[in-house]
Design goal:
This protein has 269 residues and is mainly alpha-helical. It contains eleven helices and two strands; from the N terminus they run ααααααββααααα.
């Protein structure tokens, strides 16, 4: 559990994904092979994933803020859409069975992995807008300019929040590609800003899951120390790794995990 907490947060922090795409399928797959994880259900694994991501998000955001890489204004705007969406996802999650959860989660993983193959210049028509909010963000004294329309941003962030509350993925795996491909965010701003959003939205979603009794407290404490260390380490390592390297690792990993979950979910329906 310490290892799962560390690696999910480490990989999630580097790419701004939050770690749920590693935590949730990792625990689900272990539940199939180890009797120790027989307590796992779609509801408690999602709730625990979001609770663990509070610590991932806080440790990562704290580190990224020191490097001045978080666009707080844009993150706050996106949160006005993602928080209501995450609460909607928590509500829907109560009705999911394990087999259908694995199938839908696997499909989502494959879709997300394919999003990383889309190049930004292929989305140029969506980026060209004279309306909305214009931001100029400085990285190492180099200015980066980007603009995004408010209504599409809120709609997308709501959908991202819904997937976060429903599947426990934190939302970064969808929000980071959206910020880069649709709104023109530089990757080194999108990932830190996503971690800030994950910290806030996971806190809200976790409260909802706690109120519904989805947290298995005797186990969740073993994930948290690894998540805290992994989140901090990932934010530091991300300063030195090429973005393309991380993207390829994530593509391969998500396709493999997604295909396995789809197979298991479909076979048991």
């Amino acid at each position: 559990m310490l290892v799962i907490g560390f690696f999910s947060s480490f990989i999630g922090s580097i790419a701004g994904l939050g770690g749920g795409i590693i935590f949730v399928p990792g625990v689900l797959l272990l539940a199939e092979t180890l009797s120790f994880f027989s307590w796992v259900t779609p509801q408690n694994v999602v709730g625990m994933s979001l609770l663990v991501m509070i610590f991932t998000g806080f440790s990562s955001t704290y580190t990224y803020l020191k490097y001045k890489r978080v666009d707080l204004k844009s993150g706050a705007l996106f949160l006005t859409g993602s928080i209501p969406g995450s609460l909607t996802g928590v509500f829907i999650n109560r009705y999911l069975q394990e087999d259908s959860f694995q199938l839908y989660f696997g499909i989502l993983m494959v879709v997300i992995s394919l999003m990383f193959f889309v190049k930004q210049n292929e989305m140029n028509p969506l980026l060209k807008t004279n309306k909305g909010i214009k931001r100029v963000f400085y990285l190492n004294n180099v200015p980066f300019s980007y603009r995004y329309p408010i209504s599409p941003a809120l709609i997308i962030s709501y959908a991202v929040g819904l997937c976060s509350g429903l599947f426990g993925i934190g939302g970064g795996s969808l929000m980071v590609p959206a910020m880069i491909l649709l709104f023109g965010f530089p990757a080194k701003v999108a990932a830190p800003t996503s971690m800030f959003m994950i910290f806030i939205s996971s806190s809200v979603s976790s409260i909802a899951h706690i109120s519904l009794g989805h947290i298995v407290w005797e186990y969740v404490w073993f994930f948290i120390p690894g998540a805290w260390i992994g989140g901090t380490a990932g934010a530091i390592v991300s300063q030195r790794l090429r973005g393309s390297t991380i993207e390829w690792i994530l593509r391969i990993l998500m396709i493999i995990i997604g295909a396995r979950l789809i197979w298991d979910g479909y076979a048991n329906l």
